[in-house]
From TrEMBL, chains A, B:
Record organism: Paracoccus aminophilus JCM 7686
Single GO molecular function: phosphate:acyl-[acyl carrier protein] acyltransferase activity
Protein name according to UniProt: Phosphate acyltransferase
Keyword Cytoplasm: yes
GO BP annotations listed: fatty acid biosynthetic process; phospholipid biosynthetic process
Species lineage: Bacteria, Pseudomonadati, Pseudomonadota, Alphaproteobacteria, Rhodobacterales
Oligomeric and partner information: Homodimer. Probably interacts with PlsY.
Name of the encoding gene: plsX
Length: 380, 380
């Protein structure tokens, strides 16, 4: 297992047994070939993982047989139906039984698998996850959290929500702060995460009224939940070292994430143009190959592939629809790391105790504060 | 005048006389020194511009005297007050008389100058512009439009609103489409601009209800206003060659713009790191210097410095607060190009005729369609 991406030592220690990952082989832009190749990469780098793979039996058997030794680690669940990128979430919830996506989620629901991974339609995956896994007690709107390359020591900032729900009112944004803080502590090893609230300016009078209210709620919750609230941040702070977790509604988060990704891609293309411009620049590119490859790795979205659905009874990792085998392997790696950190149980405890704390008053705060510490306490 | 940035040949032809630009010397992060140096750069590249410069008389006289021949082309308007970045727009509107920003806008109001340029507080500048210049007949919410490097032949896409108003309902978004289309036609020389509406997905069922309504309104207006409506676009399409003008509310636009700018900056830093990593990579950087400089120019925000306020009785160009002399000169160049293209009068005609067209029915459409064609018709 690579320890480059996620630095928390707790994450690299095995939980003792093997982890079972439920993988949707269908629905990605590159089809099941890329997904099965990603499983093979994952299997090669970590012998402790077993896979339940969902899709058309015959096709999956054929693809898995192409990778030596892989079939022994995979259980195939036959599912003929495929959720496409254009399917409406509401239709998938009504008619999706029999699809590979439904089957993938159900393996987590029945506790056969500890975590689910899919490259499919995000909206459908979230809708199915909500219906089949149900929301954690105390959570109103689940969120999708993703990692963004940053100037921080841990190498990443967490952004949420990046598209689970286009709406979020002030109490929802507070929950995003609690969930993002737990993810940052357990996933990135940041003891006391700094939370920022996305707005169009850092001054207190800027932005929407509901953001002012959310800021007040988050600020009040900071001491109990053991995070620091740093106030408003701006779009330019995605990679900032002054913040660890950036909270926003899913409409804003989706557009900010894609604007950032699109710009990184644009600059990468401009860079390629610049280096193919003359004989001299081509020669320079050859000389600088190692450095350029290092740069490419730093801005490669496949390296941080995987949005995590937060706020459900079970962990679901959404891989990019266009993920290749490396991207799929990265998403599985993230899924396994979250399982091994005991993140899901800690998050559930955090949200439940925070809800209790709000109902029962501040005397509950000592218990709540210990809920998701990254130490070897009992899980739930 | 450089013709690299804006390719419409109409823009590089002189209007016959000199253009008077009203420049706020105060309120930028780098103070009046950078602004006066920017004016000097602008004066050196274009002999047809005169400047009314606003700020403390003695200081401005001293700074202008440092540039040979500049004082003959500048009129100083003494203004002791300065609007700071932290001043609230509402306060500036009440108490801002006597500030350099107020005085700068008033030179356009009294028609002494054709266009205003300021590096100051965006919110205050928009509030003052609205109060002193007033909105164009038919416009509900003015917008700030900016240029974004793109893969299009014209080299840029237009984004609006990037921060004039955090709200926009469907009819406002329609007006942004009309204004952005006029700016694109007259400013970038695109005969029939393609308009996209920013959303979290391109499918018709995605996103907020008000965006669906806005899409219908924009689609209906497309034929009369001579643009093409291409439907929803996403954050990743800022630089896309499938669209020329991207329409969104000012909250979304501000965050998308800053997320893109911040990412370009991050990748630039990573690139610098990559090339200072080893002796070999440093040598490669030396060899590739010309290509790297070309890349830097392509992603340099100073090159496209200047958000344009659309929907007012007068043109105001907002330069970046952190603009240096090159950035200020670029903002003045954009301001002069807009004046020389007759953009303001064409925009006014477009919005007024569009409003008439909506009131009077489709028989007005032939007139409306001719309102902002980039030909040498009479202005207004």
């Amino acid at each position: 297992m690579s320890s480059v991406e996620l630095k928390n030592p707790a994450l690299t220690s095995s939980s003792g047994g093997s982890v079972v990952v439920s993988v949707d082989a269908m629905g990605g832009d590159r089809g099941p070939t890329a997904v099965i190749s990603g499983i093979a990469e994952s299997a090669a780098e970590n012998p402790d993982i077993r896979y339940i793979v969902h899709g058309p039996q015959a096709e999956l058997e054929r693809l898995i047989a192409q990778h030596s030794g892989l079939s022994a680690r995979c259980t195939i669940r036959d599912a003929a139906g495929v959720v496409t990128m254009s399917d409406k979430p509401s239709q998938v919830v009504r008619n999706g039984d029999g699809t590979s996506m439904w089957s993938t989620i159900d393996s987590v629901r029945t506790h056969e698998a500890s975590v689910a991974v899919s490259c499919g339609n995000t909206g459908a995956l979230m809708a199915l996850s909500m219906i089949r896994l149900r929301k954690l007690p105390g959570v109103n709107r689940p969120a999708i959290a993703c990692l963004w390359p940053s100037r921080n020591p841990q190498g990443f900032n967490i952004m949420l929500d990046v598209g689970a729900d286009i709406r979020a009112d002030a109490p929802d944004l507070l929950q995003y702060a609690l969930m993002g803080s737990a993810y940052c502590r357990n996933g990135l090893g940041v003891e006391r995460p700094r939370i920022g609230l996305m707005n169009v300016g850092t001054e207190e009078h800027k932005g929407k009224a509901e953001l002012k209210l959310a800021g007040e709620l988050i600020s009040k919750a900071a001491a109990d939940a053991n995070f620091e609230y740093i106030g408003f941040v701006e779009g330019g702070d995605l990679a900032s070292s002054k913040v660890d977790v950036i909270v926003m509604d899913g409409f804003t988060g989706n557009i900010a994430l894609k604007a950032g990704e699109g710009t990184a891609k644009l600059v990468g293309e401009f860079l390629k143009d610049a280096f193919s411009n003359s004989i001299l620049s081509k020669f320079a590119a050859l000389l600088a190959m190692t450095s350029l490859k290092r740069l490419q790795r730093r801005i490669d979205p496949r390296r941080v592939n995987g949005g995590v659905f937060l706020g459900l009874n079970g962990t679901v990792v959404k891989s990019h629809g266009s993920a290749d085998s490396t991207g799929v392997a990265a998403a599985i790696r993230l899924a396994v790391q979250l399982v091994q950190s005991g993140f899901q149980d800690r998050l559930a405890a955090r949200v439940a105790q925070s809800a209790t704390s709000i109902e029962d008053g501040p005397e509950q705060s000592a218990t709540a504060q210990q809920a998701d510490q990254p130490v070897s306490e009992n899980k739930a």
